[in-house]
TrEMBL record:
Protein name, UniProt field: NADH dehydrogenase
Matches recorded under PANTHER family: NADH DEHYDROGENASE, NADH DEHYDROGENASE-LIKE PROTEIN RV1812C
Alphabetized SUPFAM superfamilies for the sequence: FAD/NAD(P)-binding domain
MF annotations from Gene Ontology: NADH dehydrogenase activity
UniProt organism field: Streptomyces nodosus
């Protein structure tokens, strides 16, 4: 009995962990096999990406190595390119496929489809050339290096146009990713400015662009208004009901007519279902997510399961009919555990359980000692919300190993000064050697952009 799990994110990791425990006897005697297909050998705990970008947490500690924690599973580093569920077959492109030109055909008995989501972009001129995402740990660290490098550029030139463009940072999207990334990086850059003789915090311009009339809708309207006020108090330019229309030629053009020469455009304006969903014979809803039942099976299909961002799961706790659970980490982790339990139930002929979890609220960090929260109907802001944010996510980050390491880094950060070093050369590690060997390095030898 082979269980194929496509995706190594929240659902992929937690469902595999659950199945390892529930099917321990079957795995030991070889009656069952769990195969996990993931594009990365690690799971990224995304709520910690803003703190990784600001340097509060080491990037190695916001990821969980899949091989270590899924020691009873077979891990394949690759990407599922198509799934024929009628034939119980998945086509997987692995790292070796680039060398051999051949894909691998995997057969399975039970399918867990949890590829997550990808960034939702728009056909905006210049976005593909100059935009920076904020969904992976590589993007978070790259953005940190980029921000510090822009401060280096501004410090080393007397040209006001180059200086202003380097010190203008535009973030598009007022959800968790955009607001938390902006808050943490502005905090970090403000601190780093004390070590530059000619760059002051007031020289930098931080702009948040949001197409709707509010930010952080998950924390409620009141806390959203408080967040706008708090950001503006820090001289952050928050522009609501505004869209980015172009960033070609390194000039951000907004729908309200404003134009900002800038070398930094961070795109965090939402996500969309993973493309693999459209390459299956499974039923999708109007938004491209898998139609699921409250038991986390794919609706109308046997031996197929889904949860998380890829799944449209009915919310049985909602008062209004037809409502679905929100595609967030809070639901994904809980759904993954139930999904693992239900697969074990199905294999043993036991009745399935129904997913029922009422959303308890949200917390968001706005930088060091600053935050907002709306949890169990209670509204918190400032230090109390920031502390709750850290406490909640510390309790949710997988493995005791990671919890201890993150706690240790927070403790050390409270005792010593922040690190403000840019390691941009990591993005092109062979550049200096290629230059020495007579080749042409990609980009700047030290990775500046």
């Amino acid at each position: 009995m082979r269980i194929l799990i496509v995706g190594g994110g929240y659902v992929g990791l937690y469902s595999a962990l659950r199945l390892q425990r529930r099917l321990k006897a079957e795995l030991k005697r070889g009656a069952a096999e769990i195969v996990v297909v993931s594009t990365d050998p690690y799971m990224t705990y995304q709520p910690f990406l803003p703190e990784a970008a600001s340097g509060a947490i080491s990037p190695r500690h916001v990821v969980v190595p899949l091989r270590r924690v899924l020691n009873r599973c077979r891990l394949i580093i690759g990407e599922a390119t198509s799934i024929d569920h009628a034939r119980r077959t998945a086509t997987v492109s692995t790292l070796a496929s680039e060398e051999t030109g051949r894909t691998e055909q995997l057969t399975y008995d039970e399918l867990v489809l949890a590829p997550g989501s990808v960034s939702r972009t728009l056909p905006i001129p210049g976005l593909a050339d100059h935009g920076i995402g904020f969904k992976t740990v590589e993007e978070a660290i790259g953005l940190r290096n980029h921000v510090i490098e822009q401060m280096d550029i501004a410090s080393s030139t007397r040209d006001p146009a180059i200086r202003d463009a380097a010190l203008t940072f535009v973030f598009v999207g007022g959800g968790f990713a955009g607001v938390e990334a902006l808050g943490e990086l502005e905090d970090m850059a403000r601190y780093a400015a004390r070590y530059y003789h000619n760059v002051k915090p007031g020289d930098m311009r931080w702009i948040l662009v949001e197409a709707t009339d509010r930010i952080l809708p998950e924390v409620g309207e009141e806390m959203g208004r408080y967040t706008v006020t708090e950001l503006r108090r820090r001289n952050i330019d928050v522009r609501l009901e505004t869209r980015l229309e172009s960033c070609a030629d390194r000039v951000a053009v907004l729908s309200d007519g404003a134009r900002f020469p800038t070398r930094t455009v961070v795109w965090t304006a939402g996500v969309k279902p993973h493309p693999i969903l459209a390459a299956t014979d499974l039923p999708l809803n109007g938004r491209g997510r898998l139609k699921c039942t409250p038991q986390l099976t794919v609706d109308g299909v046997t031996h197929a399961w889904a949860a998380g961002d890829a799944a449209a799961v009915p919310d049985v706790t909602a008062e209004e009919p037809g409502r679905q659970t929100a595609p967030n980490a809070q639901h994904a982790v809980r759904q993954a555990r139930l999904l693992g339990d239900n697969i074990a139930h199905a294999l043993r002929g036991e009745p399935l359980e129904t997913y029922a979890h009422k959303y308890v609220g949200s917390v968001a960090s706005l930088g060091l000692h600053k935050g907002v929260a709306h949890v169990y109907g209670r509204k918190l802001k400032g230090y109390a919300a920031w502390f709750m944010h850290r406490t909640y996510h510390l309790s949710r980050v997988p493995t005791f190993n990671r919890k201890v390491r993150v706690m240790a880094e927070w403790t050390l950060a409270g005792l010593f000064k922040r690190e403000i070093v840019s390691l941009g050369s990591l993005e092109h590690p062979r550049a200096e050697f290629e230059l020495a060997a007579g080749g042409k390095p990609p980009g700047h030898p030290k990775g500046s952009s």
